Amino acid sequence: MFVLFLRSETQPRGSAPHSESDPPEQEEEILGSDDDEQEDPNDYCKGGYHLVKIGDLFNGRYHVIRKLGWGHFSTVWLSWDIQGKKFVAMKVVKSAEHYTETALDEIRLLKSVSIRLYVRNSDPDDPNREMVVQLLDDFKISGVNGTRILFRTYFENKS
Q1: 20 to 30 A Cα–Cα from 108, which one of 23, 28, 51, 98?
Q2: What is the CATH number of the domain that holds 49?
Q3: How far apart, in whole angstroms, are the C-alpha atoms of residue 4 and residue 89?
Q4: What would the DSSP string read from start to end of 94-152?
Q5: Per the annotation, does 91 bind a ligand?
Q6: pLDDT digits (tens, 9 = 90+) for 56-105
């Protein structure tokens, strides 16, 4: 399984700032709903999803706050980076070998993009610098079924 971490913004891209007086519905829209369709519980098995619970701590620094979503490849969790003191999105990828290989390819690609983007980041006026998700961290863990699980972290720049 893999994990994706993105910095959480105080507001969604392209939206105007909101105040404490805004209605709760707007915040629910931003955060999503826990009532949304859920992944198949039978996919929590060897080669499948890794069981993540609210309050879990990964790699000694990422504290799980809530699930943001899921897909065929992974689940995504809002987490608090204790060391970096920021919200991140953590992507937990399924542990089957073909998912692991695909995730490792994605990590290599994102590391390559991050290196090239580093030059652009030196120019704060470059409009493209905040359009690319950047890899922050990647690591592996073992799940309850003994399958090795790779966790990785990303960072989404402000736009």
Answers
A1: 51
A2: 3.30.200.20
A3: 5
A4: --SHHHHHHHHHHHHHHHHHHHHHHHHHT-TT-TTTTSSEEEEEEEEEE-TTS-EEEEE
A5: yes
A6: 999 999 999 999 999 988 998 999 999 989 888 888 999 899 998 998 89
